[in-house]
Amino acid sequence: MRAQLVRLPLTPVVTLWQDIDKVRGTFVETSLLQPLPLVPLYANLDVIVTAGISVSQALRSKGNGSASRNGVTYVDIALAPNFRVGAVAIRAAWHYQLNRDSLTRRGGTLPRTPERGHTSWASLGMSTSF
Fold it and tell me: Is residue 72 scored above 70 in pLDDT?
C-alpha cells in the first residue's frame, strides 16, 4: 500500500502601492491563496491569508500618512467558496482580520471600538466571461 500526498498549487500575490503625491510612501499587501477542490471543474474553496505592511506610510509631523506606524498593519484570513456554471462564477467570502494599526482597520460585522484589534465581514460577488 502506498500513500501519496496531493500537491496543491499555492498562489503567492504581492501588491505594492506607491503614493508619490501626498503621503509619499509605500504600502505592500502580500497574500497566499490555496484553492481546495470541492467539485472538480465546478466548485472550490479558496483559503487566503493576507498581510498588509506599511513600508513608509506612517504618520508624519504634517499629519500625512496612511498608517500610525510602519510594519505589519493587519493580517486577514479568508474562506471563499467559488461556484462556476458555464460562463458565470459566484464567489462568497468570509474574512477575519487581526489589526495592529487603528488607521488601517476595516469596518465589519463586529462592533467597532478604538481598542478592538479584530473584525470580520462577508462579501458576495458574481462575474461572467465571454
Answer: yes
For residue 77 the three cell numbers come to 484570513
Alpha-carbon 104 to chain mean position: 13
Strand order in the sheet with 118-128: 11-19, 25-39, 43-54, 71-85, 88-99, 118-128
Give the C-alpha separation, 6 to 86, whole Å. 27
Which residue stretches of the chain are H helix? none
Tally of residues, the chain: 130
Contact 100, 54 (CB under 8 A): no
pLDDT digits (tens, 9 = 90+) for 8-53: 578 889 998 887 776 677 888 999 999 898 988 899 999 999 998 8
Question: Do residues 38 and 59 lie in contact, with contact meaning Cβ atoms separated by under 8 Å?
Answer: no
